[in-house]
Protein: Nuclear-export cofactor Arc1-like N-terminal domain-containing protein
Organism: Clavelina lepadiformis
Amino acid sequence: MDVHPLKDDLPVILHFIDKAGPINSTDGPSTTIIKLAEFCPNFINLNGKTALNRAVVWEWLEKRLSFENGSAKKLCKSIEERLQGQVYIAGNDFTIADVVLFHCLKPYFCDLTHSERQTQFVNSCRWFEHIQHTSGIMEDSKKIAFLKNNIYV
């Protein structure tokens, strides 16, 4: 059964869609995600706390759309570079970009070996493990195990 990561917020989100304003058929996925994220009561500032954070969130939501199917590795490498020296995609605050990218990359991370995770995607794996343990993100899903020590090949 496919379970939405914010399943407890869905009724509230659907109730407040009218307050968010009409979601036009011309609105892109990023606009729709951002409009809906404004009404998640369990998460504050999902769109970013500052104008710079909001711009970075928008950039990464759009960047996700620019990667075609089958290019999860390129997206993951891009995230790997972004996460050098910071905790989350938009800096040091959890945002909707983290939620969206996490769920986009979950199948890719499931397919990686422990060795690949530790050698190619150190920052991304740190971020991924942190996000999967965030309350409300993966309550009913199986979490991916990450080794705490280095693998020597």
In short: The chain has one domain: 10-132. The domain at 10-132 is CATH 1.20.1050.10 (Glutathione S-transferase Yfyf (Class Pi); Chain A, domain 2).
